[in-house]
Design a protein that fits this description.
Protein name: NADPH--hemoprotein reductase
Shape: globular
Organism: Brevundimonas variabilis
Number of domains: 4
Strand content: 15-25%
EC number: 1.6.2.4
CATH topology of the largest domain: Rossmann fold
Bound molecules: flavin mononucleotide
CATH superfamily of the largest domain: Flavodoxin domain
Keywords: Electron transport, Flavoprotein, FMN, Oxidoreductase, Transport
GO molecular function: flavin adenine dinucleotide binding; FMN binding; NADPH-hemoprotein reductase activity
CATH architecture of the largest domain: 3-Layer(aba) Sandwich
CATH class of the largest domain: Alpha Beta
Structural class: alpha/beta
Helix content: 25-40%
Number of helices: 14
Length: 451
């Protein structure tokens, strides 16, 4: 009798938990749809709308373009938002009023999705007389080419005969004061004073529930898989998005990591390498996250939408290429295909030692057994039997890779900028030729999250 009662209680509890999960998933989806529809409203406004264009690599410029459009709409000035990379000089001319939020990546370079725009539109002066514009340039003073792309774009617009509404505003490392200055300047368009209200999105509280050392004994730095659960908030994000984690010292800038999981997992997961400086001391953030932060502790975390690394098509073939902790950004993408009929998902991954650095091996095997991953190729640069970097696979698998691309595959690259992503770029270019690579980039079928 007691056993029956406890069975009944457990069953009841399971049903309640199941209902709660269902409610959370539905609420999440509603929230996502509500935010999409708010964006569509701004987009739907007509021809006279101010064009707010963004050039973004990791999502901040895109986010600021949307908040700029919202400010204009609130002040009664219609606005529409677009990726500058999808526009031509003729589109800009036709818009008559243009605001651009432009970030800089690499060494003073334009974001990836702008490469076609830079080559085709910015290589010569355009005829932009009649266009009024302003530029919000995002950058970081620790790089040599501070705001390099924003400045180049401003110069090109000016040389093409466009008239600046106000001076270019430059933002160092997301500085809120500079962003509020930009907001105030928008009065030049709305004709009414604007009370600047920019504050970065608040950090939400998450709890570290699990940390796993992925590569004990590795000749490379320790890599850890960290799992966080939200406290009191329902978080939503997509594969490719980025999280900012606040450090215990409020004066220290937060750190950005690719999210390695999806909301349905109930956890935000990250793969973090413990950095060790030449004097043997650990990196401030990576040392704290991989060792000092105790399981069960709470931290501040906020998620940022990063469409530049979203997958453009949920079912088309997908080629995931990366090294080291770059497997994090790729993992969210293959997980997004767990319940999707897809045209194949191929992972190419490079690490150092086959004995110690077969990151997530069991999970990869299980994903392959279930058909979530259709093919896995790995290289180990320090294994005597191998000695190759991941880009070697592009040449080795040239024919298959070409077939996949002909079948409509998208290529997503995540991991080290130097060495890996440059090597992959060169290997792809010698295999496909510069024009096909450029065409893939412009079609959003070659995307990178590299650091
Ligand atoms: C890999 C990498 C390279 C960067 N290179 C530069 C640079 O050369 N000049 C600069 O001013 N900022 C540079 N930045 C800083 C970004 O411009 C800055 O973080 C900006 O807010 C990013 O905006 P986004 O998220 O829209 O791409 C770089 C950032 C990263 C991650």
């Amino acid at each position: 009798m007691t056993t029956d009662l406890s069975r009944l209680l457990w069953a009841g509890l399971a049903i309640v938990l199941w209902l709660l999960t269902l409610a959370m998933v539905t609420w999440n989806e509603r929230r996502r749809r509500a935010s999409e529809s708010a964006r569509a409203t701004i987009l739907a406004t007509g021809q006279d709308a101010v064009l707010v264009a963004f050039a973004s690599q990791t999502g901040l410029a895109e986010q600021l373009a949307w908040s700029t459009a919202e400010i204009l709409s609130r002040a009664g000035t219609a606005a529409r938002v677009a990726n500058l990379g999808t526009l031509t000089a003729a589109d800009l001319r036709a818009s008559r009023r243009l605001l651009v939020v432009a970030s800089t990546t690499g060494e003073g370079d334009a974001p990836d999705s702008l490469s076609g725009f830079v080559r085709r539109q910015m290589s010569a002066r355009g005829d932009l007389s009649g266009l009024s514009y302003a530029v919000l340039a995002l950058g970081d003073r620790s790089y040599n080419g501070f705001c390099g792309f924003g400045r180049a774009l401003d110069g090109w617009l000016k040389d093409s005969g466009a008239t600046a509404l106000f001076e270019r505003v430059e933002v160092n490392d997301g500085d809120p004061d500079s962003i509020r200055h930009w907001q105030r300047q928008l009065a030049a368009l709305t004709g009414q004073a604007i009370e600047p209200d920019w504050t970065p999105a608040p950090f939400e509280t998450w709890r570290l529930v699990e940390r796993t050392h992925l590569n004990p004994g590795s000749p490379g730095g320790e890599a850890h898989l960290l799992s966080f659960e939200p406290i009191g908030s329902v978080a939503t994000w997509a594969a490719g998005d980025i999280a900012e984690i606040a450090l215990p010292d409020p004066a220290a800038p937060s750190r950005e990591y690719s999210v390695a999981s999806l909301p349905v997992d109930g956890r935000a997961e990250f793969i973090i390498r413990r950095l060790v400086r030449s004097d043997g001391s650990p990196g401030l953030a990576s040392g704290w996250l991989t060792h000092d932060l105790v399981e069960g502790s709470e931290i501040g975390l906020r998620l940022r939408r990063n469409t530049a690394f979203h997958s453009p098509d949920a079912s088309a073939p997908l080629i995931l290429i990366g090294n080291g902790t770059g497997i994090a950004g790729l993992r969210a993408h293959w997980r997004a295909r767990r319940d999707v009929r897809h045209g194949g998902t191929w992972l190419m991954f490079g690490e150092r030692s086959s004995l110690h650095d077969a990151f997530l091996d069991e999970e990869l095997q299980a994903a392959q057994a279930k058909g979530v991953l259709t093919r896995i190729d790995r290289t180990y640069s320090r294994a005597p039997s191998d000695g190759r970097y991941v880009q070697a696979l592009i040449t080795e698998q040239a024919e298959r890779l070409n077939d996949w691309i002909v079948r409509g595959a998208t290529i997503l690259v995540c991991g080290s900028r130097e060495g890996m992503s440059e090597g992959v770029d060169q290997a792809l270019e010698s295999l496909l030729g510069p024009e096909r690579i450029e065409a893939l980039r412009e079609a959003g079928r070659y995307r990178r999250d590299v650091y």
